[in-house]
């Protein structure tokens, strides 16, 4: 299907996840498109991601959905228009991690402020995420749930690669919204800072939080990181 959509234009594999999913870049004349392909898996729902992109796109910059479908080999695909910016893991931004971390922080704040909680039909709160816990030992997380600080529409997977940064060094948009839903803002902040050492260095965690405009909350960060690992 990717080759059919490309219609002869260059195709490049740009991402492969642990569940077997792949993302391809299509270089068109004057713009870029992407096709996300995924095998059937209970943790991957490209139809729902398309709905979330369409909803979030009313309020902030996310990829425009161009097409969606299923193949006969029990797989699905999602075709989107590219955003003219680079992911925060691009070499340009890995070479300037402080600026990138701040762009991620301001971008996440922008995301949280723009999307209306009252109109969001999806949840990413602890009680809903708990259905993904598989290890019985991790069920103890449900006995020590922290009080929610401030409900927002969370990105759900705010790891470094999912923030796009423009040439001016500012956040230009977000991708991979499959887990979007209402939750405490620390569900995003804990994971966004968690991912910095995987791509830059833990030294920039406070830069991200400062750019977001919030002081570190060690207890909530620890809890939501453990929940992330458990689910």
UniProtKB/TrEMBL annotation:
Keyword terms? Antibiotic resistance, ATP-binding, Kinase, Magnesium, Metal-binding, Nucleotide-binding, Transferase
Note the superkingdom of the native organism: Bacteria
Asked if the keyword ATP-binding belongs to this entry, the reply reads yes
InterPro entries, from UniProt? Aminoglycoside_PTrfase, Kan/Strep_kinase, Kinase-like_dom_sf
Q: What is a single Pfam family found in this protein's UniProt entry?
A: APH
**Family as reported in the entry's similarity comment:** Belongs to the aminoglycoside phosphotransferase family.
Q: What is this protein called?
A: Kanamycin kinase
According to the entry, what is the taxonomic lineage of the organism?
Bacteria, Bacillati, Actinomycetota, Actinomycetes, Propionibacteriales
């Amino acid at each position: 299907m990717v080759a059919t959509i490309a219609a002869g234009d260059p195709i490049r594999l740009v991402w492969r996840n642990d569940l077997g999913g792949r993302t391809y870049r299509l270089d068109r004349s004057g713009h870029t498109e992407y096709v996300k392909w995924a095998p059937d898996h209970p943790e991957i729902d490209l139809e729902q991601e398309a709905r979330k992109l369409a909803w979030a796109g009313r309020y902030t910059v996310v990829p425009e959905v161009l097409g969606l479908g299923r193949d006969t080999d029990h797989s699905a695909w999602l075709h989107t228009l590219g955003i003219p910016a680079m992911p925060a893991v691009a070499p340009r931004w890995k070479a300037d991690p402080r600026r990138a971390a701040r762009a991620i922080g301001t971008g996440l704040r922008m995301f949280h402020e723009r999307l209306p909680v009252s109109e969001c039909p999806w949840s990413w709160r602890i009680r809903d995420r708990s259905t993904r816990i598989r290890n019985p030992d991790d069920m103890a997380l449900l006995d020590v749930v922290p009080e929610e600080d401030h409900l927002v529409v969370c990105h759900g997977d705010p790891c470094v690669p999912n923030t796009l940064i423009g040439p001016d060094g500012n956040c230009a948009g977000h991708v991979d919204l499959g887990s979007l839903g209402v939750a405490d803002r620390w569900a995003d902040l804990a994971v966004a800072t968690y991912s910095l050492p995987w791509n830059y260095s833990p030294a920039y965690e406070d830069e991200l939080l400062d750019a977001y405009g919030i002081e570190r909350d060690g207890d909530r960060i620890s809890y939501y990181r453990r929940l992330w690992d458990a689910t």
